[in-house]
Write a structure and sequence with these properties.
The chain is 3% helix and 47% strand. By secondary structure, the chain is mainly β. It has a 20-stranded antiparallel beta sheet that branches. It has a three-stranded antiparallel beta sheet with strand order 1-6-5.
Length: 344
């Protein structure tokens, strides 16, 4: 999603030679059919994922606990964080007028400030640079689970008055951890969105002062990225779509408001999402707050729509810039459609 987390997607760097007048890029930004969402939001009718009843997120209340948070997801995977994430704000948009008369517009679809690299252990567990782990869990019994890293957790009392879990480490030592437990969103609209999605394609249209200047589409097929591209003013495909490695191949939304994006270069974004307008299917995503200096500017708004087992995420951004080298202000409009298919 937008140009930095939630998010969700490739970087855009546009270099435009200065024109003799801004009138040369004025025009009509009429969008093609399919670039904007339909008027009505309708939840889908997909079946629940295999572990939907086990989905839960717990956060340790004790700073000395062996973990910070644990989330079991409806697809049978978990996310274990050993410490609270401390992400930093990185401006999603930057405009520069260069001495050679060119203007550069940098719009980031994935901010390096919040992405983390990962490695995969022999047991299949994915370990992020910040210490978080992502892997499969095995259900041992009622509310008792073994994680792919070998840790066993008992969540029987996680939602009662006790609010504790039993955490057994690799040495067999069991500790009782007091936790806070999130309440999963059980609405039909949330259930429609909250699942694991395979990322299919990213399509983008660019307009400057109302004039169409570029269109690109990157599609993932059999683990590789295929691109289509055109520009009216000489942009290159890499300028608009970025590198293939910047594409997401899998995205997860959870009913505990977690959002995870897995990139083809092995990096991962973990953020959070919330409703803005449930009736219209409008979401807000933002960086995970790390401390009192948390910057709420790192966020975005998107609209979702469903068609069968697919979800489309629509983005529409307008940025206005002054003193860009054209002799007047400039308006840049970016329209994006992300298409995903349910993994289960």
């Amino acid at each position: 999603m937008k140009i930095d987390i939630f998010i969700l997607f490739t970087s855009l760097s546009l270099a435009l030679a200065a024109c003799s007048s801004s009138d040369e890029i004025n025009g009509d930004d009429t969008l093609p059919t399919g670039a904007l969402p339909s008027a009505e939001f309708k939840p889908n009718d997909l079946p629940a994922e295999p572990y939907a009843e086990d989905a839960v997120k717990v956060i340790a209340n004790d700073a000395d606990a062996p973990f910070y948070s644990l989330e079991l997801m409806a697809d049978g995977y978990y996310l274990l964080a050993t410490s609270r994430r401390y992400n930093t704000y990185d401006a999603p948009v930057r405009v520069e007028a260069k001495a050679n008369g060119k203007i550069s517009i940098h719009k980031k679809h994935n901010s390096s400030a919040v992405r983390t690299r990962s490695t995969i252990n022999d047991d299949g567990t994915m370990v992020f640079d910040d210490g978080s782990e992502y892997g499969k869990f095995e259900k041992l019994g009622n509310k008792r689970y073994r994680l792919s890293n070998g840790i066993v957790v008992d969540l029987m009392n996680a939602t009662g008055s006790d609010r504790t879990i039993l955490y057994t480490n690799l040495n067999g030592y069991t500790s009782r951890v007091y936790v806070s437990t999130s309440t999963p969103d059980v609405g039909k609209d949330a259930q429609s969105i909250c699942r694991t999605w395979d990322y299919n394609s990213f399509e983008i249209w660019e307009y400057m002062n109302g004039a169409y200047v570029a269109h690109g589409k990157a599609t993932i097929k059999e683990g590789k990225v295929e691109s289509e591209f055109e520009s009216t003013i000489g942009f290159e495909v890499e300028d608009v779509l970025g590198e293939d490695s910047d594409m997401c191949y899998k995205i997860i939304f959870t009913t505990s408001n977690t959002y995870i994006c897995f990139y083809m270069d092995g990096q991962v974004d973990v953020a959070q999402w919330n409703w803005v307008d449930r009736a219209q299917g409008i979401l807000h995503y933002e960086d995970i707050p790390g401390n009192e200096d948390y910057d709420y500017e790192w966020d975005g708004y998107v609209t979702v729509r469903f068609a069968g087992n697919q979800m489309r995420i629509y983005e529409d951004y307008i940025e206005n810039y002054a003193d860009t080298g054209f002799g007047s202000d400039m308006k840049v409009r970016t329209v994006i459609v992300n298409t995903l298919t349910a993994a289960y």
